[in-house]
Amino acid sequence: MKREAPPVGQNTVSTIAESAYSRIRTDIIFGTLPPGRRLKLEQLKKDYDASVSTLREILNRLSSETLVVAEGQRGFEVAPVSAEHLREIADLRLLLEGHALEQSFAAGDVEWEARVVAAHHKLAGLESRMKNGDRSEVKAWKRYDWEFHQALISACGSTVLMETHASVFDQYLRYQLLALSFRGDIAAEEHAGLRDCALTKDSVRACEILTQHIQGGVEHALSMGLPFGGPRKK
Fold it and tell me: Which end of the chain is more exposed for a tag (fewer CB within 10 A), N or C?
């Protein structure tokens, strides 16, 4: 049966909304819109080229993802950060990713192994450069980090699990970026260890490494300092 074409302009509106959503979400995660920042609709309209009604929908969507706080009549602000919340997010990430690793390792085939190796190769290259002091591609580094961890669990067989993990990972990533947290050789060795465990299907050892990796990331981020309790930016 032939599908009817959408009304004229519908795709354009959808594209604008998704583009604005993606840009605002990225700016929150990467700290361009810092914790506690008041999100004024008129200013967002100028910055992200979207209508006020579209922006309200976007901010409500981000509120459901806990990246934005809705303040009733007062509007919206970027969600604050805290050491307690970071630890909660880390525990949730470990629970989800650990379970997904076990499922993925059991079901992974040669194509999955190739995805893991390829994703690790890209990540290791950037980690090597960052260990040598090059911090010019932080966004690419964290994107490759995300891609590697997603590759590890990509054979788990559950789209819902993958999507939930991705959302939690982004919240964890936000803290890492706010602290500019990079643990150098330690993180690189843990990533290499996870790759090796994937190739030998050793999910027990992989979960041990993953625990060290996530908990170590939390402690390092806290030691670097985060904008906890700082003044709200108007």
Answer: N
Unique residue bearing structure tokens 């996870």: 194
DSSP label of 74: G
**Tens-place pLDDT, residues 10-55:** 344 468 889 999 999 999 998 899 999 999 999 999 999 899 999 9
Residue 127 and residue 146: Cα distance in Å, rounded? 13
- Interval 103-160: pLDDT, tens: 999 999 999 999 999 999 999 999 998 888 777 787 888 889 999 999 999 999 999 9
| Token code pair at residue 9 | 């302009």
Pick among 1.20.120.530, 3.30.470.20, 3.10.350.10, 3.40.50.1820: CATH of 83-224: 1.20.120.530
Q: What is the pTM of this model?
A: 0.81
Beta bridge partners of 38: 77
